[in-house]
Amino acid sequence: MGKVKINKVGQSFSADILVVVVILLFGVLFLVMSKIDNAQTKDIEVKYEEATVDSNIVVENLKATSVLDSENNVNIEKLLLVDDEQMKLDLGIKNDFCITFEKDGKLVKIDSEKGVNGIGSSDIIINGIACK
Known about the structure:
Elements: H1 8-64, H2 76-80, H3 84-91, E1 98-99, E2 101-103, E3 106-108, E4 119-120, E5 125-126, E6 129-130
Antiparallel strand pairs: 1-4, 2-3, 5-6
């Protein structure tokens, strides 16, 4: 029988390829995570812009329906009659909203007798309190 040759070059070549593949995988992972982070940042900016536009639309509607007067005083009786779902449909707003009042960073009940914290979606939580 003849002698068996040991191929040291092939073994080190395989280890080099393995190191390169691992480095490439980390590079790809880094790029993917970077893209996800950028997408989340853009999502937040887009949501903020949508919220700003929707808020302005709701405020203008409240002024047009005399819930708010020119000095931004609130007619509570008219505000309590506002149907948030109908307002969303009428104004073409796709996002939920909640009309609330606060003083010194604390939520003020719109109608303390009935326990109304806000007018809008009960899915919205403000300072740990549901909107409705």
